Amino acid sequence: MNKAKREYFPYLRVGKMNVLLKEIPLQLVSEVNEFSAQGLAEAIGVSVTTVSNLIATLKSLGFIDGERKFRFTAVGDRYTLLIKTEEEEAKKVLQHQIENIGYFQVVKQRLDEKGKLTISEIGNLLVTQYNKRWKNPLTLKAYGAGIASIFGFVGYGYYRRGVINVKKLEGEEGAMPVPYLSADKIFRILNALAPSGADIHTLSRDLGTQKRRLSQELACCQALGFVGHPHRGFYELTESGKAIISPYISDDERRTKFIRYLVGSRYKRIIDKLPEAKITVKSIGNVLESVYGKKWSELTKKTYAKKFLNWLRFSGLVARVKGEKGYKLNESVLSSNK
DNA sequence: AGTCTCAGTCCCAATGTCGC
DNA sequence: GCGACATTGGGACTGAGACT
Description:
The protein is mostly helical. It has 17 helices and 10 strands. It has 4 domains: 14-85, Winged helix-like DNA-binding domain superfamily/Winged helix DNA-binding domain (Arc Repressor Mutant, subunit A, Orthogonal Bundle), CATH 1.10.10; 102-165; 183-244, Winged helix-like DNA-binding domain superfamily/Winged helix DNA-binding domain (Arc Repressor Mutant, subunit A, Orthogonal Bundle); 251-335. The longest helix is centred in the middle third of the chain and has 18 residues, at 137-154.
């Protein structure tokens, strides 16, 4: 036993892999039919290198066998058929499959120990465990991301921005986007997302807001629990999001709901730190700066504080104090929503 | 042919500015 | 005082080229 069997690793992100698999014509998906890289490339209309990368990924998962001529394995066959129509079922197949693949278990074990892994850490783990000679840090990340995205897909964790987390990010520090938009804009976004969600390009066009800007605003809506982000570039309303823009509730009910979600969100941490009286843009700005642990310019503080104050005023959590500058917390409203 | 690397593009978060 | 838009920098993503 001088040379171990060649070990393959997923190269493509699972999202990309699935997109390509959906494109494969049914007649090619079979345990008996052989296909070449060239043939597959023509069949799905992408370059041969892309297909080569797909093939390496599928091999790494045990979904296809062969050299130069390939054919689907039984499980690969099943997965490819399911991914076209029944994604949840396909996930189960993939999950079961990776339970029997060594390197997935190695990474999974490390993930369970540490709670989260960056894609570079995963890459390094493979290099040391499997004697890979990857030199470029980007290559480490590419393979790391391939594995991390699969973990996210099958439900072993939550993959986002180069980090796979065992636990959901929600509620953790750092996962609280700065208040970035007014309540009014929040509702415009929610209405634009109704009823079945939208991709960021469409949304940007419909709302006339730059994509960059919009993605930040959506992050806020997400933190408040109104919007979900099932995959890259696509956003949809959560049940809460649908409820709060329902035409069947009054504006008063809308406010009440808004308070409940605001107080139930991570932004509660900010509300807790607010002074009881003399709430002004300036004082909120300072609270924000300390909660986020940042050093901001006065202007930046003011920008965010204004938005947050807008939420507080919209919801009725604060009331103006007569004859004085600033607002005070409406304790009764707050406590009735604890 | 198959594996790895490169570089352009896209996405995102943070910060800054404009106009009413 | 307020809401909307712009700029910047960094990192992930991706298709295709380079290398073995």
